[in-house]
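Work Package 3 (structural annotation) set out to generate three-dimensional models for the target panel prioritized at the project kickoff. During this period the team completed the workflow that converts sequence records into discrete structure tokens, so that structures can be stored uniformly alongside our sequence database. As a representative example, we reproduce one entry of 708 residues exactly as it appears in the project archive.
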Amino acid sequence: MSTTFLDKELTYLPGIGPKRAELLQKELGLKTWDDLLYYFPYKHIDRSRLYRTSELTSDMPFVQLKGRFISFEQMGEGRKQRLIGHFTDGYGWVDCVWFNSQQYILKTIKLHTDYILFGRPSLFNERINLNHPDVDAADTLMLSKMSMQPYYQTTERMKKAGLNSRTLEKFTSTLLRQIPTGAIAETLPRSILDRLCMVSLDEALRAAHYPSTSNELTQANYRLKFEELFYVQLSVLRYARFRQGTIRGHVFSRVGENFNYFYSNNLPFQLTEAQKRVIREMHADMKSGKQMNRLVQGDVGSGKTMVALMTMLIALDNGYQACIMAPTEILAEQHLATFRKMLGDMPVRVELLTGIVKGKRRKSVLEGLQSGEVQILVGTHAVIEDNVCFRNLGLVVIDEQHRFGVAQRAKLWEKNITPPHVMVMTATQIPRTLAMTLYGDLDVSVIDELPPGRKPIQTMHMYDNNPEKLYSGINQQIQEGRQVYMVYPLVKESEKLDLKNVEAAYVHLQKVFPEYKISMVHGQMKPADKDAEMQRFASGETHILVATTVIEVGVNVPNASVMVIQNAERFGLSQLHQLRGRVGRGASQSYCILVTKYDLSRDTRRRIDIMTETNDGFEIAEADLKFRGPGDLEGTQQSGVAFDLKLANLARDGQIVQLARDTATRVLDEDPMLVQPQNHILVERLKYLETKWIGATSANVLTLFCRT
């Protein structure tokens, strides 16, 4: 920001000394006045009104009462001990309940003294309760001036050090008093503000913390959310246009002998119309003269691997090499086996490069890559090592993109003078607003059909009080020659969490099924041991695989027909869907059993219902985004479009996302290079934000993704 005084460190703000400043930076990442200004409240509560106790009901939001404590009593023992304060305002009674800080309450709150309580009412034993209410001396609060009070997120460490929401509120109030009205420099052109009827940045920031009315808060949030999303979209679209206009790609003009022979003779099944469409879309990209950057989405089992292989054959037909990078060694080995089996006796050399490929074999692969004899390379992170040199790399396929960072992908692109075409595959369906933001610089293709012969997975919900029924079904499937996954949320037993764990389940299932062989995999095992157990299961040597979610991205086992997920209430929708996709790979009917406790929250029950009602990955992804929100969007730092959303929520602000994208598109259509005087403000803001967004990334990545 051009307003230089906002670059001051927090130690220069009255009330914040070195220790507090250090804690704020460690816990919340707040270092400067600007950081504090953009640390927004998570809610506002109207503190101007007082209620009477006689008005209270259990379904009300936060309320305020003015009255006195008449007595205190302690009830219960041990962890269930609680302090109850009996409070009256002369119109009725409420019970204030504290489970923590009981001695502090007894020492600081005086009987028969006027206090103002603030909390959420609930009903217990037919009496209104306020659990852990805020208690302030009545003579210290000026309710008429409080209006919409902000509440800020804090951490346990901060609370222990006396830095609670109220403290942060005071810091913010002090900060805003230090800044003269109108002194915060504008960050959007006047033309955009006028067209969209938005308040100034100065007004918006002040009202975001201290609005006079709910309408003022709405206007402030609208302006600030739009700005966040607008600059993300402007950065994404600007890079995409730069790439399309300046980064040339290899021209794959022909579909030749390798592709046609494979299509005519080696296809194990008829391609779906969706697969054909995606191949056509990618070929159109690759013959255009521009570098292809395409995200291919498709459910597990939709045939993305087949599409990837056939696209690689197009690269070979045009005299180029191709490479596919998988997130695990076992998945890379499976890709190798699949490709070699599909290619049969075709004269195509496919090799593997992972950490376990060593000695003469590794030397042979590296020499083959340099000479061009190795036409398709299957690998893991080992592919991006500096000593891996291709003769002429034309196409890179990245499997399960969320497992790879942008820096890793950048290193792959540097394997050729002209950047290779890039196909990014994911089985994780990405909701529209999220895709528009995270992958707005990529073209998107969707494989929305399953190959012929695949039967939709039947998903059922069972409670954990009837394991015999579950075991009977498992036994029947194994008797019919099938295999079973059993997934658990924990590796070991936990004192804090009443959840099932892998190690105990492994021992228990050996007793339940003594006639069957059982494997176990979890994240705490050595990679070699884990891979060995996975291979035993994949080869059919073991009947049941007991695992944690490490199998979420795993090997293809067509014979596995049952996925049992224990404590399914502990998993998000997308993760449940990803786990479910481990079965249903063969022609047999497959099943997913969601096992939960009987007592479920309304949201959890709805999640389970969605899983049993649909197999549509996009429908599930949209629902998951609404349930969980986008979280911290960890994938953004890996997607190539790093950003930091303070207010905007991609699950709820879809309309603002679209408005931001449309506005950014209009700006770039009118001024592609942002050279017009009115757009100077955009260039300066972009430079500032991109430095902030990608402060931790390497210089070459910054060059790749944030060219200005």
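Confidence is low (pLDDT under 50) at residues 631-642, 695-708.
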